[in-house]
Each structure stands twice: as structure tokens, then as C-alpha cells.
């Protein structure tokens, strides 16, 4: 069928619905409702859809559109749940089971007939993590079921007036409900409030005289202090005492006030700056025992012949400092006696490449861009030059740009079936680096590599496997992915041909180096990137600023490349 997606943003869920529908042979296009009702109407006239699906919509579909076309709304709540903050309420209420419902658009919000619903678990994780994980899995399953029923033509959707549907209206979840009383709230309550707003909108609070939104929350098992007191910093995060413990908060966002040039999320210590004078930095070793309940964005552990180097950076972005620490951790892992080294394996983002928010806030964004891309190149190069063991990149969550190239540097890429990859740079006005001109053609072939970077479209896990970007699909729930990776890695380490594979890998790297040195790929890529970074009028700077400030793109059709990138970065 011809299916038009109407969304407020081409976010992770919208991208996943897009790739899953396209995977099943549907012709799919996308229009952003942020450009107004007329843009939606124009897209409907131009595309002539058989069906309209709204994966993530903050505004109503124009009445004349839903009256003339079947329009299915994806609601992140069980049947009968209504309102604009369903998932926020579920987390606040401590729900362990939830669901996603696909219902037909009508005048009243979320009151339309139900075409499909799929339940899901809600483990103790951040809202954005759940949204990209369990909720995304359930949403895709519900959309595919609803589309199948619509195509069949014989399905009669369930009216919400049916006695089996328990209708519950949940209003906007306002900041007064998120407010943390540091004197009264226990650690579990504080974590629940922080996790319920980890990405958007954050929890409004005051720290050291500065009004900020708190983003993200992790428990701390040893540090203690007066409730509300800042106890320590660690790699950009801050630790704050609760009534009965403490929590780590990785990121802050200054409250939007006149004259503030950086009202977007950044590492907490960067936002607080000199206000943190006297607060100690308390690092931890990367090989922390698994039972430790503290915040560490990089960890290493070993089980038999397998090493596991996990990293979890907020939003998947990797700053210069994070890249340097990851490189040091990788070198530490190489000193351990293992035959298989697993990178990643967490349930959320693998990596999205350089840290655009930190770059945007830098005194010299061009210079920080250059420093950041070189630091990430160093990590990728270290992986490419590892020839004494097999390296596996385990993607439990999405990856983009340099993050994809970090994964492709490994010998094998294992990918959860719900993952979406964006193996391109053009939408940020960049040529790209991280040895993509070596790794991408090596896996997918020169012609496919050129097409992927030229079209700059999201790629689903199944398509990535067919293209050669992924070696193994892991059909696991987000919470079970790490366990499955451990089992598969241990089996790989025990395989009888492992030594022969490592020897073949070493010989292959020597041949490739003799044909064209990795240093030449890096030099040529970075020459193109440097020209872009240090050109004040390069589209990259405006696109980066719009991205970090969440400014809607100029075009309502996100599948089309921004006009400002045309001809700028073609490989």
C-alpha cells in the first residue's frame, strides 16, 4: 500500500515504523505536522495514500484529512488510556506492564476505534530508553497488525464504548508533579521522577543558585550527605544526596531565559562550571564489580576468554573527553588475556558519533568539532588495528553516523532486531570520517556504500543484514539482549576455528594496509571535514545549531535532504 506517516518529528519511533513498513513492501512517505495543517494536506494530495499512520503526533490531524482518509494514531498506552502523557503517568505510578494502542483518528483525543493493541513490560529504565525499547517494539507490532487488518478489509475495529474497554483520561503531566522534595523523597522516588523525564522535559530544580532541568538518574550505593547536597562529580555527572542515599545526574539543561546562549542539554559539570568549586571529582575503575550500584558510563568485565567493554553515553553522543576515556578503556581491555572482545551490549543507543551539544556550547565550535572527530577517529582506528583477537560490536540500540562506523570497525556486528541504523552524515552537512570510506565499502560494496551515503535514509536491522552491515540479528527484548550477547560471545570464544580466524584477520589487515594504508583514508576524510568545520558559512553550523535546539527542519518532508546540503558533501 501507499502509506503516509504524519509525525511531529522524524524521531526514533517514526524511523522504525518507516523502515518496518518499507521492509514489508509498502511505499512510505513522511510529512511533519510541525509545518501546519496545510503542509499535511499538501502531502496527502501529492502522495494519495491508501492509509495514514501517525507514529508520534503532538497535534491533531486536520479534520478534513481524517474524515476523507483512514488515519491511525499510535498511542503509547493500553486500550482505553487517553491523554498526552501516558508514559509519564505509567512511570510515575510504578506500572510494570503497559501497552501501545493503534486507534482511528476522530474529533476527541484518543477516543477513536481500536485497530490493534500490544502489551509490553516497563522495567526500571528511563522514559526515553523505554520509548526506544519496549514501547517501540510494541508500537511496531501494533502498527503492523493494524495495517494488516486494514488491508484485509474485513476487520471491524473495537469501539471504545465496548464494555471490555476501561477508559481512563490522564491529563498533562506538569512540573509540579515532577518536583523533587530532597528532604522528604526517598531515593526510589527521586529516581522514578528523574527517569520519567530523562530526555524531555527534564525535572525543573535549582542547583547552586542556577535554575536547571535535571536529565537522567542513576543510584549511588556508598556516597552520603545532607539531602540535596552535591557530593561529587564524575566524568561530567554530579552526585546529589537524597534522604536515604544519593543519585547521579549526568546532564542538565539551563532553564530557557533571555540571553542564555545554551538552553540545551549538556554534561552537568559543564553547565555548572565554576559553581562546582570544592565539589570533589570521584572516579571509579572501569572494572567495577557488577553488583556495584553507581554511575559509570564505561565498564569492563571478563568472563573466561571473553571481555565485555560496555559504554552508555546519554543520547549516544560521544564528546572528545568521552572518546578519550573510551580509548583508554579499550587499550586496558586489550591488555587482558581474552580471545573475544565485545563492544557495547547495552540496551539503549550504541553511539551516534560526535557530541553536537558539547560542540555547540564550545567557545570555538569549529575547533571542538575538529578535536572531537579526531578523538573518535582514534577509537575507531584502535578497533581496526586490533589483530590479536576477534572484536564484536553488539548493538542493543540505534546507531548513527560515526557510531555506525565504530560498529563496522569490528570483525562482527551483532544487532538487536529492533535497531535502526543511519550510516550517513549528509543530513548534518558533513562529508564524514571515522574511516567510513574504508569500512562501509568493505562491508557493503562501493556502489551500495555510495547509495547509502547519498540517499541518507534510515536502515532497519533486517535490511542492514542483507546489505552486509550486520552479521547476526538477535531477536531479543531490550532487557534480554545483553544476556543473549554473553551466551553468543562465549560460544564464539569456544569455536574450534577461532584461532584460524584471528590469523586470517591479521593477514587480511596486512594485505589491506599494503594496498592502501589506514592513515591515507583518515587523511583524506579529515581534509574534507576540516574544510567544512572551519568554513563559517558551511551548512553544518546552521544544521548543528538547529539540531541541538530542536528547531523544526525547513522542509516538512524529512526524507528529502536539506537543500543546504545539496552538492556539499557528496562522496
List keywords for this structure.
571 residues; Rossmann fold; 2-enoyl-CoA Hydratase, Chain A, domain 1; 3 domains; six-stranded mixed sheet; disordered C terminus
How would you describe this protein?
Mean pLDDT is 95; it is low at 566-571. The chain has 571 residues and is α/β, with parallel strands linked by helices. The chain has a six-stranded mixed β-sheet, sandwiched between helices. A six-stranded mixed β-sheet has the order 17-18-19-20-22-25, with helices on both faces. The chain has three domains: 2-169, Rossmann fold, CATH 3.40.50; 177-276, Methionyl-tRNA Fmet Formyltransferase, Chain A, domain 2 (Roll), CATH 3.10.25.10; 298-548, Alpha-Beta Complex (2-enoyl-CoA Hydratase, Chain A, domain 1), CATH 3.90.226.10.
List strands and helices in order, with pairings:
Blueprint lengths: L1 E6 L4 H12 L3 E6 L4 H11 L3 E4 L8 H6 L2 E5 L5 E2 L3 H7 L4 E8 L9 E8 L5 H6 L1 H19 L15 E2 L5 H4 L8 H9 L7 E5 L2 E6 L2 E3 L9 E5 L2 E5 L4 E4 L1 E4 L11 E2 H5 L25 E6 L2 E6 L8 H15 L5 E5 L11 H6 L3 H20 L5 E6 L3 E2 L1 H7 L3 E5 L3 E3 L13 H9 L1 H10 L3 E2 H7 L4 E3 L6 H13 L4 H18 L2 H16 L5 H10 L23
Helix pairs in contact: 1-6, 10-12, 12-13, 12-19, 14-15
Amino acid at each position: 500500500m501507499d502509506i503516509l506517516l504524519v509525525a511531529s518529528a522524524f524521531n526514533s519511533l517514526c524511523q522504525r515504523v518507516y523502515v518496518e513498513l518499507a521492509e514489508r513492501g509498502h511505499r512510505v512517505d513522511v510529512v511533519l505536522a510541525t509545518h501546519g495543517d496545510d503542509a499535511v494536506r499538501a502531502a496527502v494530495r501529492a502522495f494519495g495514500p491508501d492509509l495514514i499512520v501517525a507514529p508520534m503526533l503532538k497535534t491533531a490531524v486536520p479534520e478534513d484529512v481524517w474524515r476523507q482518509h483512514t488515519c491511525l494514531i499510535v498511542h503509547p498506552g493500553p486500550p482505553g488510556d487517553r491523554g498526552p502523557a501516558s508514559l509519564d503517568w505509567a512511570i510515575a505510578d510504578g506500572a510494570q506492564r503497559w501497552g501501545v494502542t493503534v486507534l482511528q483518528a476522530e474529533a476527541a483525543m484518543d477516543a477513536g476505534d481500536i485497530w490493534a493493541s500490544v502489551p509490553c513490560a516497563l522495567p526500571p529504565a528511563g522514559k526515553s530508553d523505554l520509548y526506544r525499547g519496549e514501547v517501540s517494539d510494541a508500537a511496531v507490532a501494533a502498527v503492523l497488525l493494524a495495517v494488516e487488518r486494514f488491508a484485509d478489509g474485513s476487520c471491524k475495529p473495537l469501539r471504545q464504548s465496548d464494555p471490555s474497554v476501561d477508559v481512563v483520561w490522564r491529563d498533562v503531566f506538569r512540573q509540579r508533579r515532577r518536583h523533587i522534595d530532597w528532604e522528604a523523597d526517598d531515593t526510589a522516588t527521586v529516581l522514578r521522577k528523574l527517569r520519567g523525564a530523562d530526555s524531555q522535559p527534564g525535572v525543573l530544580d535549582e542547583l547552586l543558585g542556577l535554575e536547571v532541568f535535571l536529565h537522567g538518574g542513576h543510584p549511588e550505593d556508598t556516597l552520603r550527605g545532607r539531602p540535596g547536597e552535591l557530593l561529587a562529580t564524575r566524568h561530567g555527572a554530579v552526585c546529589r544526596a537524597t534522604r536515604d542515599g544519593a543519585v547521579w545526574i549526568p546532564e542538565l539543561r539551563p532553564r530557557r531565559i533571555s540571553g542564555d546562549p545554551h538552553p540545551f542539554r549538556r554534561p552537568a559539570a559543564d553547565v555548572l562550571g565554576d559553581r562546582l568549586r570544592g565539589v570533589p571529582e570521584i572516579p571509579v575503575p572501569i572494572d567495577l564489580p557488577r553488583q556495584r550500584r553507581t554511575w559509570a558510563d564505561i565498564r569492563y568485565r571478563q568472563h573466561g576468554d571473553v571481555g565485555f567493554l560496555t559504554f552508555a553515553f546519554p543520547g549516544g553522543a560521544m564528546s572528545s573527553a568521552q572518546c578519550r576515556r573510551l580509548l583508554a578503556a579499550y587499550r586496558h581491555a586489550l591488555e587482558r588475556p581474552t580471545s573475544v572482545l565485545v563492544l557495547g551490549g547495552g540496551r539503549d543507543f550504541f553511539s551516534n558519533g560526535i557530541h553536537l551539544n558539547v560542540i555547540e556550547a564550545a567557545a570555538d565550535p569549529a575547533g571542538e568539532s575538529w578535536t572531537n572527530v579526531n578523538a573518535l577517529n582514534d577509537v575507531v582506528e584502535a578497533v581496526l588495528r586490533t589483530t590479536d583477537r576477534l572484536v564484536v560490536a553488539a548493538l542493543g540500540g540505534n546507531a548513527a553516523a560515526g557510531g555506525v562506523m565504530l560498529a563496522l570497525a569490528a570483525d562482527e556486528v551483532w544487532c538487536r532486531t529492533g535497531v535502526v541504523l543511519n550510516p550517513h552524515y549528509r543530513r548534518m552537512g558533513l562529508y564524514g570520517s571515522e574511516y567510513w570510506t574504508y569500512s562501509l565499502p568493505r562491508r557493503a560494496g562501493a556502489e551500495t556504500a555510495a547509495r547509502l551515503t547519498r540517499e541518507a535514509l534510515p536502515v532497519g536491522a533486517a535490511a542492514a543484514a542483507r546489505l552486509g552491515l550486520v552479521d547476526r540479528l538477535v531477536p531479543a527484548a531490550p532487557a534480554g539482549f545483553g544476556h543473549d550477547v554473553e551466551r553468543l560471545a562465549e560460544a564464539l570464544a569456544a569455536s574450534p576455528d577461532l584461532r584460524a580466524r584471528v590469523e586470517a584477520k591479521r593477514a587480511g589487515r596486512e594485505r589491506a594496509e599494503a594496498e592502501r594504508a589506514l592513515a591515507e583514508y583518515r587523511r583524506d576524510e579529515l581534509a574534507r571535514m576540516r574544510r567544512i568545520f572551519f568554513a563559517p558559512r558551511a551548512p553544518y553550523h546552521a544544521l548543528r545549531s538547529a539540531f541541538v535546539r530542536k528547531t523544526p527542519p525547513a522542509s516538512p518532508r524529512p526524507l528529502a535532504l536539506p537543500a543546504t546540503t545539496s552538492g556539499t558533501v557528496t562522496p
